[in-house]
Amino acid sequence: MSLSFTAKDVCAALGGISRSRLHGWAQLPPFSEMPTQERSARRFEKTDLLALAALQTLEERFGARAVQLEPVSAGIHQYLLTPRHTLAEEWVFIPLRGDGVRAIQTLPIAEAGWVIDMARERERIDLYLGVAPPQRELFLPGGAPLAGV
């Protein structure tokens, strides 16, 4: 069974954003191309939540505007739909022109774009859904972190 979320759920998951802000993102591809039913609330899936979280990060941290998000939103969504093994760190490169959104490993970046921590976006959505995040560091009573746990 696939989880689905209403606009109200999405707004809450993204820290209480306004419905008008969500409506603006819903006008971007691929959301604008998804069929909707008249007199029925639009439903979003977890992949949609993650893509919208990434768009929110691009707006809030990098000052991206709607005209800049339009060419990249479908690429972000497609990246998230592609099966892959997720790691504790998942840095993603989003080129300004929108094609070829990819995980950064050791590949050099030779074009303009944004880099975001998709693992952080996944963690944010998982926290909203009540899924406990993996432990990255445990603090000992003396205050020194114990890494790799």
Task: Provide the fold topology.
Blueprint lengths: L6 H7 L5 H8 L19 H17 L3 H16 L9 E5 L6 E2 L9 E5 H12 L7 E3 L5 E3 L2
Antiparallel strand pairs: 1-2, 1-3, 4-5
Helix pairs in contact: 3-4, 3-5
Question: What are its keywords?
Answer:
149 residues; alpha+beta; 3-stranded antiparallel β-sheet; globular
Describe the structure.
The protein is an alpha+beta fold and about 150 residues long. It has one domain. The chain contains 5 helices and 5 strands; from the N terminus they run H-H-H-H-E-E-E-H-E-E. Helix 3 packs across helix 5. The longest helix is centred in the middle third of the chain and has 17 residues. The mean pLDDT is about 85.
- Count of strand segments: 5
> Unreliable segments (pLDDT under 50, ≥5 consecutive)?
none
Rg, alpha carbons: 17 Å
Helix % is: 40-55%
Query: How many angstroms does the end-to-end distance come to?
Result: 32 Å
Count of DSSP-assigned helices: 5
Classification by helices and strands:
alpha+beta
Instruction: Domain count, please report it.
Output: 1
The neighbouring-strand order within the major sheet is 2-1-3
Tell me the strand percentage band. 5-15%
Inertia-based shape? globular
Largest sheet: 3 strands, antiparallel
The average pLDDT is 85
